[in-house]
Amino acid sequence: PIPPPAATRRALAVRLDDTHLLVGEKPVILVNVAQQVNDPAALGQIGQVSMQFIPQYQKLVLHRVQVLRGDQVIDHTATAQVRFLQREAGLEQGIYSGVITASMLLGDIRVGDTLHLQYSIEGANPIFGGRYAQGVPWQRPVPVQWRRVTLNAPEARRVLWKWNADAAAPALAPEITLQNGMRRLRFEERDLGAVELEPMLPRGAIPLRWLQFSEFADWAEVARWADGLFPQDEPLPPELVPLVQRWLRLPSRSEQASQALQWVQNEIRYYSASLGESSHRPHAPAEVLRNRYGDCKDKSFLLMRLLQSLGIPARAVLASLGAPQGPGKVLASPLAFDHVVVRATIDGRDFYLDPTRLGQRGPVDRMGQALEEARVLVVDGRDTTALAVIQSPARKEIFRSELTEKFKLDAFGADGELETQQQWSGVAAETLRLTVARFDPPRLQRALVTNLERRYPGISVVGTPEVADEVDQNRITIRAKFKVPKLANAVDGNWVMRFVPANMQNTFAIPPSPTRSLPLALPAFPITVLYSAEVQWPQSVSALLEPAPLRIANPAFNAEVTKSFRGNVARAALRFEPLAAIVPASDVPALLADAKAMERAIGGQITVNSNQVRDGGFLGIGRKSLQENLLARAKATVERTGKAIGGGQLAGDDLAQALCLRSEAQTELGNTPEAVKDAQEAVRQAPSLGAAWFCQGNANWARGDFAAASADFGKALAFGANAADAYYRRGQSRFFEGKLESAADDFARAVVDRTDAGAKAYAQLWQAWTLQRLNRPLPPELMAAASVDPKSAWPRPALAMAAGQMTPEQLIEQIGSRSGDDQELALVEAWFYIGEHQLNAKQPDKAREAFEKARAKGITRYVEHAAAGFELQRLAAKP
């Protein structure tokens, strides 16, 4: 019986949703549903009814079509006009399914009416060999007064059942009845509330609970079923033999597999005619070759047999494009999959190749992977016992997006210059490869400008953009130059230049509310995003902000933001590494808080304050030097922090932070005793603050007490200071303490903990000459880093010198390409690095000269300034 209507404000409500399932030689699904319409806008939802079936193996029977209006029953069962439509929604995408839609249009439907509909569908796809697999929805986006599902199956048939949902749900067990050799399972629930479908769900999310039935005991049984669909002995047509013989002459298995894959991708067009058993059974390779078309299973079967003919172990693999990780959530069933790819084993590594893709070229280990982390089933009836997980061997290389923007402004208020370099890898490169092939130069220029003109109105391309396609790396790089009107704007006496990490777009799904019951998608996964902006301001700008990485870590992503300002060159860099595609609902608030912290850290603008612009004086006379500006700022810091400390308003950690700021400034001014005093007081005020111990380590380092500094940096580590920085500074202390083995270990740890390439290179420099002092070889990772474009961002050139790939003279020559204060600051470091290089080369006189040049620059806040002094003391002490 249909329950009386419940009071609801919903436009549509379901009074009864009753499903009966019969397991047998010809399985049957009976749908018995009563829906009430309560709003004129929803009249069409019961006035037009659609039912779908596949006539190749199913029969649709209409049992009841009634409209309930108060006590009146209006029966349309015998009079309803049914139209059978072959709609084929995927036809334009080359998909022909054979699904028929039975459509009924009912007249005279009014607000308050209930449509009572009963129909059954008899039959199942014969491809499953009579084994039962079925799923039925339980919840809806509208309220349901009475939901019931009844399964009737012969007692001899073992049909498993499982509830599937992402949100927490009450455990609902069936009522089990045995009668006349049949087992009946009845699931029942009353008054189900409407489910609000939250936005930004991951692919394969299960917002609505559903009930699954399967006669497949496990994934091994599904694999055995599928094994018969892809026979290993299916012959290849003779026309393909010359191709195989030609590929066999290629020097490596990887090249052979790549050529076979590209041939299937390019020569066999995609078209799917999934009628009857063809929904799962592929056509024979000979038929596919004759037709020159096929769907995923046809193309995969052909590729599998080609690879096997080349002597490459290969298997078909069942996957889900709609829900890549979905099979891992449900009962074993063929219905968990909607796609087929091929696993090829080459040199002991597994590669999952998709012959339906286009634009793939080069080695198989560099090809894009659209199913990364997907749960898949390898079709091997003998060896497969569980789902496999797709993990690309070269994951870090093929999932990478990098954008570098370099701005130049010669005068405030003038037009500026912008040079961009953007790199796409993996799937993104393959998609772009197809797009760029259709673009002529003017269209490419328009596309590049379109992405920037919202940020910089009036921007224009200078010259012709350069497109470099590194096929062997599956990487595309586009370099372009632009003219930017009024690059910087005057704001409250300062100058502001705005930037946007454009390659971070679509990496985050920011929901309207952090409170939700369903998981959130993290669209960027697994792509690591790298962005850097560099601004060369006018020569009158003089600022110094050393790189201070801000790291954010949570279960969903790691991020690092680094900003620096050296002379007239400002830099901002972001590294974003997603760790998961799905964020549990309980983690979303913390995720969004960290995302906002990352956004605040990157800022989106680089500012030159009015006090960072030097007064040029008349004809340049009276212009302050960088050193004078830095010392003036240090004195100002001592004065400001002194007032704050003396005001008596600060205590605990806040007081310790202020004392540390003054300590660092005192060190810069050469007032080491005062610096030590402030640092010791900071530790006394906040003995559990890692930053206070780090500050005391710096002060002890400045006065040459390396043993005390080493202990302080160790305490800083224990109390939560940045690990990479603490290891780095402790390594420097141990280096001058003479504990080279321990120093080398600390530098190695700092290298591992630093993700920013520039920050990592500083640690690698100290690691290099420490290991050389120990007569130990440099690690391969360091040598590789030194080999990556020695002329790239500072201090990579110095690392190249330390690794023997550049001479000191070449290093100084390269720094000559810099200008202004940026050049001066780089020279401080460079002369110190050259001094260490000359010491290792047994050239003490040249080392002394280099250290003296580093000291002569007078940049007292730099570690290299103090370290050069320590080295000069050691050289002077030697006979």
Q: Specify Rg, calculated over alpha carbons.
A: 35 Å
Strand content: 25-35%
- Most strands sheet: 9 strands, mixed
In the CATH hierarchy, the third-tier topology of the largest domain is known as Serine Threonine Protein Phosphatase 5, Tetratricopeptide repeat
Helical content stands at 25-40%
Layout: helices, strands, pairs:
Blueprint: E1 12-22, E2 28-37, H1 44-47, E3 48-53, E4 59-69, E5 72-75, E6 82-85, E7 95-96, E8 100-105, E9 114-122, E10 133-137, E11 144-154, E12 160-164, E13 175-179, E14 182-192, E15 210-214, H2 219-227, H3 241-248, H4 253-267, E16 269-270, E17 272-273, H5 285-291, E18 293-294, H6 296-309, E19 314-319, E20 339-346, E21 349-353, E22 375-378, E23 388-389, H7 395-398, E24 400-408, E25 416-425, H8 426-436, H9 441-452, E26 460-470, E27 475-484, E28 489-491, E29 494-498, E30 520-521, E31 528-536, E32 543-545, E33 550-553, E34 557-567, E35 569-578, E36 582-583, H10 588-602, E37 605-608, H11 626-646, H12 652-668, H13 672-685, H14 690-702, H15 706-718, H16 723-737, H17 740-753, H18 757-773, H19 780-787, H20 796-802, H21 808-815, H22 820-840, H23 844-856, H24 863-877
Parallel strand pairs: 1-11, 7-17, 16-18, 24-31
Antiparallel strand pairs: 1-2, 2-9, 3-8, 4-5, 4-9, 6-8, 10-15, 11-14, 12-15, 13-14, 19-20, 19-22, 20-21, 22-23, 24-25, 25-27, 26-27, 28-29, 29-37, 30-36, 31-35, 32-34, 33-34, 34-35
